[in-house]
Amino acid sequence: MERPHVLSVGDQVVFGGTGHTVVAISGTRIRLLSNAGEASVVALPYLLAAADFELVGSGPPPKIEPLNLLDTLPETVLAEAREWERHVIEVETGLPPGATAASTARPDYDPVTWTMTAREQAKAAELTATGRKTSARTVQRMRRRYREQGLWGLVDSRYVRTLTPTGNVDARVVAAATTVVAAQTATSTGTKTRAIRQIRQLLDDEHGEGVVAMPSQATCYRLLDVLSKGRHSFGSAVTRRQSANKPDRVYTVTSAARPGGQVQSDATPLDVMAVMDDGVIGRAELVLAIDIATRTICAGVLRPVGAKAVDAALLLARVMVPEPMRPGWDQALAMSASRIPHQRMVSLDARLELAAAKPVIVPDTVVIDHGKVFLSEVFLRAADTLGISVQPAHQLTATDKAIVERTFSSINTLFCQHVSGYTGRDVTRRGTDVAERAVWSLPDLQELFDEWVLAGWQTRPHEGLRHPFTPDQAVSPNDAYAAMVAAAGYVPVTLTGQDYIELLPADWRAIGDGGIQIDYRTYNSPELRPWARQSSGVASRGGRWEVHYDPYDVSRIWVRNHRGKGWFTVAWTHQGVVGQPFADFTWRAARKIAADRGVDDANEMAVAVILAALLRRAEAGPHATRALARTVSTRAMTNHLPAELTASIGDWPADPPPPPPRLALPTATDTADSVEESAEVAVDEVVPFGMFDPFDDREARW
């Protein structure tokens, strides 16, 4: 074996596409003189690392044998290679390996006497005489391979040959099988027998019937196993589609150096059934924003499946404004405490303290998917106003926002499975009594989720978060925020409650004597009364006033004071009947119920009574069943006809039965208990709301 070459003064080298002569060596600096007479000084590592460096006349550098690969060979194969090495070295030098200095070459291998060709012929004759038929050409080939690859070049090629995964199967069959396997991605899962028939059909269509012979069935099965490995072509269709969506580029870790450097947002249905406004159960959808640097859940909004653009804009507002700074948040928290009868995860005082301690993230970049919720003009304009860069992820590429996707999985594991009505991630993990366990309404579920984020997620050590001084210990999002803020040396100044109002959805309305009308709801206050029938001064809007509202709490609105500064906070005039916040979709559900029962859905008081009954279903508590919740809802707002009217058409009497007694609607001064008592009238005696006609002079007035 040769030692590495040496570079000395006077050697000729190729560097930079030009021939040079080494004229001096000083430490790691080499002075060169080009063939054109130009002198230069080059650092030795830079010279040796050049792509075209060559030491002229030295021959190829010695090869390092792949020692680890040699260990994988059978002992007999490795012994045969070492035997060939002994013969090749003797042909090259005249002496076998391990010969002493006093040893002399055998007569047929003396380099002084015989040429290389004569020595190769002598070695071939010697090996043939021992029973191993060998030609001089074989000896020459083994010499060349040994010089190029070392001992590895002398190993029997049958043991170093790289076998193709598909073996000796016809390339045309392999191509057809590859096409068929790729086509399984979007189709329903089938068997390998179906795939084999498709391969046969594809070969007949391309090459003619029977031209290409099919391998045996066992070989076809093995071929499909090789081609479908990792693609789940004959397994779960969901897993197959997810695997097909994996990007083919290198995976990189998503990281951020400071809080808010990148925030990922997405929406997905939760694995929890909730009682919706119409009394039936359904899955809630969570619109979430999470900070990459600290894993802080910046905000999460729950609503029925089918998030809208306003939900994404509201999410951005909740991210930018701390909870205690949002207008009316403390009153809403107090009302939620009276609405939920169960023992809270934390007390109200602790909830206020945790909310004040939760980090507020001001994002620099928000990564979104291509859902219409986040690509809407409302969301993009809100982000542009706040100077936030919106970065859409690649389509069908979950790895671009892998952290928020993993967070959804963590929420289902750490939160949803402990909530009554948990469904499991798929139907194979779903219990038989999920429908009976779903008792939480959507506002209650939102309240539970917010408490869990503050008391559970933000204070729980996260395996993906490590403090630089204690890398062996996981830290919580709150601790990670404290460490990163100390490293950054600054904290962002969050938006104020006034800014939160600015980010809410807006509308333009006129102020009448009765106040402001929005979706058949009336809002009025003493501050608003002086501006009744007055123009706002905004000519482009016809003198109407700018109104902002929270779609998840329409119990109040905010009206911009165009004649001064700030906002007027205006409450709903019938809030006393309902007694708690409610969302716009809850109001629409109450109006729909009123219309189905024959009540004028524009009658604000009638809809308010129905809305109050809808919201009182939360009083069933966490230990109630879905049947009880449905019973309470049905009893409070029944739509059943008297028993004598439910007979079949053929059994109806000639004369219709007398109408049931009328039920006068409660007034705004009635208490909630009286409202509930009036809603509990037996169904065979009265049809609440269904028979009321506000235009009938005979009806009682309130």
Quickly list its features.
702 residues; five-stranded antiparallel β-sheet; 24 helices; 6 domains; alpha+beta
Architecture (CATH level 2) name of the largest domain = 2-Layer Sandwich
Shape assignment: elongated
Low-confidence stretches: 618-702
- In round numbers, the mean pLDDT is 78
Oligomer: single chain
Plain-language structure description:
- This protein is an alpha+beta fold and about 700 residues long.
- It folds into 6 domains: about 10-55, no CATH class; about 65-160, no CATH class; about 170-245; about 265-490, Ribonuclease H-like superfamily/Ribonuclease H (Nucleotidyltransferase, domain 5), CATH 3.30.420; about 505-575, no CATH class; about 585-680, no CATH class.
- The protein contains 24 helices and 18 strands.
- The strands form 5 sheets. It has a 5-stranded antiparallel sheet. Strands 8-7-6-9-10 form a 5-stranded mixed sheet, with helices on both faces.
- Helix 3 (about 75-95) packs across helix 5 (about 135-150).
- The longest helix is centred in the N-terminal third of the chain and has 19 residues, at about 75-95.
- The termini are far apart.
- Residues about 620-700 have low confidence and may be disordered.
Fold blueprint:
Layout: E1 12-15, E2 18-26, E3 29-34, E4 39-43, H1 44-48, E5 54-55, H2 67-71, H3 75-93, H4 116-129, H5 136-149, H6 157-160, H7 171-183, H8 192-207, H9 217-227, H10 237-244, E6 263-275, E7 281-291, E8 297-304, H11 309-320, H12 329-339, H13 348-357, E9 365-368, H14 377-385, E10 389-392, H15 402-414, H16 434-437, H17 442-457, E11 462-467, E12 470-475, H18 477-488, H19 497-503, E13 506-509, E14 516-518, E15 521-523, E16 545-550, E17 553-560, E18 567-571, H20 575-578, H21 584-596, H22 604-615, H23 626-636, H24 672-679
Helix pairs in contact: 3-5, 4-5, 7-8, 11-14, 21-22
